[in-house]
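A note from the maintainers: we've had questions about how concatenated examples are separated. There is no special marker in the raw files; a new sequence line simply starts the next protein. For clarity in this README we add a label.
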Amino acid sequence: MIRPTLLATSLLLALLAGCDTVPTRAVATPAPSAPAEAVTPAAPTGPAANDNLNAVVWMQTSVEFRLLAGQAFRGALMQLDRALKSPGWDALPKEDRANIAAGLPPAVIVDVDETVLDNTPYQARLVRDDKGFDDFTWNAWIQERAARPVPGALEFARAAAARGITIYYISNRTADQGPATVDNLRKDGFPIKDDSQFLGLGTVVDGCEADGSEKNCRRQLVGRTHRVLMQFGDQLGDFVTIVANTPQGREQAVRPYLGWVGERWFVLPNPTYGSWEQALFNNAWSTPAAERRAAKLGALRY
């Protein structure tokens, strides 16, 4: 409890001096001085506010973020044994499952960035330097192999591996960033027996051609050999293909699977970036920054 501060009160005492004798001669009255010119306050100095500051500092410092992330993985762990014992349990959307899942060995699919690895130090550098994402600085961060586990992720992954479940890391880090990513995951203690458990952007899947960074082909690849018990991600595209990345298209993509959220699909909070953002300005990163910001302001409800 914060104790109230006692405010000291000062009283002004007027000291009255003795009165002088009124002079008998006239005293000239000074002419009024010209009014002082109005002074315009100086404009505040310093960097402009960065739109991502609150999001990044929340992820790095708030207890709430740690509780939310841990809650997702803890809730998944509570479902894991049930999923293992249910032969028909499968977490792949129907369009990604072309074979029968029952009888296949179990697997779990996780996204990497902001799902099992925390990249907020990279985001913090962008805020500090007032920069935007670019491939060069992002690759440099990946090569540092310095990302730490998202709260709860490592404990879940180890518990799943102890039950004989293979973890597949499907990421939109590029395939050539795989070695650094696998090194980072292993250094943090994530279970990876084989480098093939990392499926980066550009992974070739026979008989399937992905649209851009969509993960459907890589999910199908896992599904050909495994029954997928659960999926984890911070973006809607980590779970299902988004045919039209608009607010309405995103709602439509997830609607058939809402009953799986918190049971087979587990969503991690990430307010710093994502396809939800670009859906607000027609997915056009070439749009000037001021126009992108105006589009996001226009999406606010008042």
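[label: protein 2]
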Amino acid sequence: MPQVLTQASTSTTAQQADVQLPINPFTALQVHFGMLLGVDDLETLEGYPRGKLRLHNAWLHGAGVVWGLGIDIQEERGELQVNPGLALDASGHELHLDTPSCVNLGAWYAAHKDDPGFVPEITDTGVKFDAHVVIRFKACLTRPVPSISEPCEGATQNVAFSRAQETVELFLRPNLAPPRAVPYHRLRLLFGLDDPRQDDGTPVQEDLDIIAERDSIRALPPDEQPKQLLAAFRRYAALDSAELQPASGPEGASTLFPALDPNELVLADVKGILLNETSTGWVLATPLPVIDSQVRPSHVATSTIQELLCAGLRGAPADAGGPRVIASSVTLAEKTLTFTTTKPVERLSLTDETIFLSYFSPETGWAELKLAVPPESLGEGGTAVSLELDGAPPAGALVRLVVRGTGPQTVLGVGPSYLPLAGGESGPPGTASQGHDFSHQFTLTQARS
């Protein structure tokens, strides 16, 4: 087995054999006056709260580091050091390391260079390889006390341990950590955190449907999105949680937790360990390895999550009030282009640099139509724009109009503010210095869009 870095037990009398602590989260001790208590009763008494806590940790929090457990390289000693900290594993154990724990990288390599699946890179002076650090739960017996071996043997005594010390084991494993599996795939896909599953190279249809629903929600007006997103969240959370199952024990036996014991929590990848071979053994060389802790899962305190969620209540920024083009007003008749804006625009801002009209023909491709001259005046209080063109597109052509609200020259609202065009009626907010382009596409046979 890989070398243990250091066990965190502080007891010099701890027995290192595995200890199975009682857990029975659904059976509580029911006491009454004069009740005779035995070992089984006391195990039920302590196993009930322990089982409840582990169920809560495993299913509602999951595996992850709570605090600490940082990893350093001690260059002068050639050691990898794991610092104190607290974590939870996948079966709900609390993993507490109370003292720094180290392993000599040269000694570790000498012991594990022939492990199956471990193929280090050979260098001119030694070897180069990757590894990863894991932590797992261990309970040890400690504090021996005199004990009567059998209740009917009178004064015959023996010694038994009176405490179970919860501690941890740390291991350095060859190669980088394997990818971490995470639950709630549908929810993660809804929020854009997962890619769709593949079936023989083809995306699964259910996942494509979730992506389509996500895109349709994003296309809704901002004030309609939260309710639709909540409805989708509830639906997919129900489907995902229904698929969650406890891990199967030996021969398919039912368990209570999402993972079996023992299970390991990855703390970090250790990339690019360089060792030189010397007459006294393997020695850590430079450059030093890179510690990548991003592969570990981490728990964020609930109070912090509450505050982070406030960022989601920002709302849309206020619109500066620039004019917008009404899409349904766009008309092209012969050589005259007309459209209406929601607010008056400056006549001299309507130029070939701010208004682009082009058409597409399957025979000739794209062609651009220029404005003949800026309009002499604007009707209906400066909102009715009528522009003469230097030509006309052929019948049936696909016509595209772009009115600029961005770039070095834009269509402007009237002074003194001269706000840039904010785009179309339902577009995003514009600012006092940055508007949005209005784009509109239609066929020439349409009198209006």
